[in-house]
Specification:
2 domains; 2 strands; elongated; 3 helices; 111 residues; single chain; mainly alpha; 9% strand
Amino acid sequence: MSTARLYTGPAGRLLADTLASNLTPPARVYPTQELPAPDPHRTQRLRTERAELARALAQDRRLLALAAGQAGRFPQEVADIRADVRRYEQRLAEIELALASAGQKGGPADA
């Protein structure tokens, strides 16, 4: 069995130690300063995905704006595009969170 690693700051050390002692297999607790550096390939992949999603989102928003001028003509297509927009926005938020936790910043323009 491999040992799980928990990284915590001083404020959460007691809770992490308690959790580590109750886990099976056991876990080891490390300070956050010992966190491994972010994987540059993963962050690059996330930045690339973010840029692609931003382009797709902009395109779908343009389509919705065009469809607004054609009131009621394409209800199923408009519903599908709106669902895509929600999915893109949700995934973009997930990517931003992942990049922020990896110490990356910036928007789609820096990809």
